[in-house]
Amino acid sequence: GMSKWGRTFLDANPDIESKLELAAQNIELKQRFYRPVSVHVDEDGKVYVADCYRHRVQIYQKLSASPDLGISA
To answer: Are residues 38 and 20 in the same domain?
Structure first.
């Protein structure tokens, strides 16, 4: 959680808190896909997702050999 000093500072400066909230929302949105157009799985089990509008390829791989779903970005 936030320290008492941090909470006092944000209470006194509400414009900063709203900017922090907007920044957090923006980061969350950028982590999502925006028009994924292709998916490929290689021989090692890595999953490649081409994300058209974000101009990137996301690569996911297993974290462990267990049967549980363990993937990372």
So the answer is: no
